[in-house]
Amino acid sequence: MKKTLFLLLFLAFFTACSPNDINKVNNPNLIDLNFRMQLNLDFPEYNDLQFPGNSYVTYNEGIKGVVVYNINNSQYTAFELSDPNHPPSNCSSMEVEGIIAHCNCEDANSYNIITGELMEGEGQYAMKPYRIEARGNIIEVYN
After folding, report:
1. Neighbours of 43 (CB within 10 A)
2. Which structural domain, as residue segments, surrounds residue 62?
3. Are 79 and 116 in contact (CB under 8 A)?
4. How many domains does the chain have?
């Protein structure tokens, strides 16, 4: 009886975790900020996001900024623009060219803004993803 109870508790413990909890990696370099931004694709500022392969960058949200990328008009990605492998500093703010975000620090880390993966440079962390929802012509990015 005790073995059965132990097994049930063990299974309940491991099935209680959500997929987001399992995949979440605590990065000591980046804090968790609570923010929410809405991008209305009807506005000229966000017009490029109406077409696959385009991105929008803002340095007014997130830690050092946020990049939003349109994959195929139904899938979008959003990532933090502070290099995840450096504490926030002047050089850790990343700039986006095409689908690559790169920092200006000595190691010149480069990341893919579609997947968030480290492409070149040094470090163990990928870009910090943000949640994103598309509803009609409104794209909402939040943490």
Report:
1. 9
2. 28-142
3. yes
4. 1
